[in-house]
Amino acid sequence: MAVAMVTAAAEQTPTIDEPVYVGTAAVYLHEHSLAYNPEHPPLGKLLIAAGAAVANPHFDAPFTGDQGQVGRHLLYESGNDPWRVMLWARLPVIALTLLFGLVAFAFARELTGVVGGLTALALYAFSPDLIAHGSLATLDVPAAGFVLTSAWLVWRARTRPRLYLPLAGAACGAAVATKMNALPAVPVLVLLSALSVWSGRRPADRTARGRTLGVAAGWAAVVATAATAVVWAAYLVVDPRLRWTSREPVPAVHGLRAVLVDVMPFPQAYRNGMRIQFGLEDRPWQGFLFGHVYTGSRWYYLPVALLVKTPLGMLALWAAGAAALLAVRRLRRAAPYVLAPPAVLLGAAMDSSRDFGTRYALFMPMFLAVAAAAVLAVRRTRLRAAAVGTLGALVAFVAVSSLRTYPSYLPYSNEAFGGPSATHLRLHDSNVDWGQDLGRLADRLRTRYPDERVWLVYKGSGVPSFYGIRAADPRAVPPGRVHGLLVVSDSSVAKARGRLAALIAGSRPVDEVGHSITIYRR
Question: What is the 3-state secondary structure (H, E, C) of 186-203?
Fold first, then answer.
């Protein structure tokens, strides 16, 4: 997994979101300002800043612009090497992703033994989604991993609440201080904390039950307080004076949303970030699913996307493991800790207006890798032997499927849906084409198509000219002038309308780059 992620980090150009986070991280380091990217809390960007600081890029403090422009200016207009800056910015996320794999191993080992732990670790390490997003300087894997860590610590707190519950609260706070979409997990983890204290004491009479209930409520409050403290600490590290000077307008929110924002015990910057997120939720985003372009969202989008982008063997083990957790008596007590957090987070994500990819559900391959180990809990000798054999075969199937997509993990889809080369026919955006292959495109054009006229429709944050791509926008000239190579990002192909659709229809595909960019000849 480490090799796959480092390879991807070294070879991929910046994805759409990364310059925003890296630019904001540089602002944190040099100006200690919360002005940029307020819709996401600072902890994940502080991790990215730790790596970017090693690269020590030149920072142009007088530059002003929006958060996207700041990132692009840092990478391409300030004399820095974007390859080096991005690699160092990605390395802390890679390290954290690997550590979360050890959490999955430890969690599953406590439930089903070493073989179960190794099963969970194998499923985690071969997950194409975790490899793809764990190799990027983004916030999705850190937020999901901190939720997993908190759930594991809450589970351990059944025997030692004094040690593990404050740590669980800190991990929960780290998730919420990384991405706001982790907020639905907070009440779940707080309730599970109380459950751990209750189950650890097992009161025998009514008086003891009342006393234990009070103690459980007290420990739940400790978890919530620790989580809140971590959120405040993340903001104070950036700016001890907590100055709020957003460069973007903060929308007003009303009704239940306003009440929710007002009761949050977090800094003003966090609550204004929530307002911005609610404003983003109200936008009419465009989605793409199985060849259909639509405006708005589909409640079933994420389950379908997970079905496409998860290895078939992994899907089978997820289902079998979840069933075993609920069916096997000795594992039933662990089911709420393993299944409730991802279920609540998935429900919240399905209600979102942004159908942009499985990166919004990375908690699924984390938690369900742990659940899959429950298949080994079968007691009967014959059934256990069959379960172990089937499990081994399915894990091997997952490994082969994952290795076959190396080094292009973002556009992975399983064999039932045609593999990575066919993902763009069914999904778009970060599922397949997030701007990651601009550097590979430059190499392809230089080696196979030297001196040819290039017309480019690129979806991403990279600057084509920096990589030596000399191209024009075919949509800016009459169609009759567009001759030579027409290069189009697959997300733009999926949603092509009007002039671009006509240009593609009058061309023939001759090549592809990273399963995310198609080269046509006209």
Answer: HHHHHHHHHHHHHHHHCC
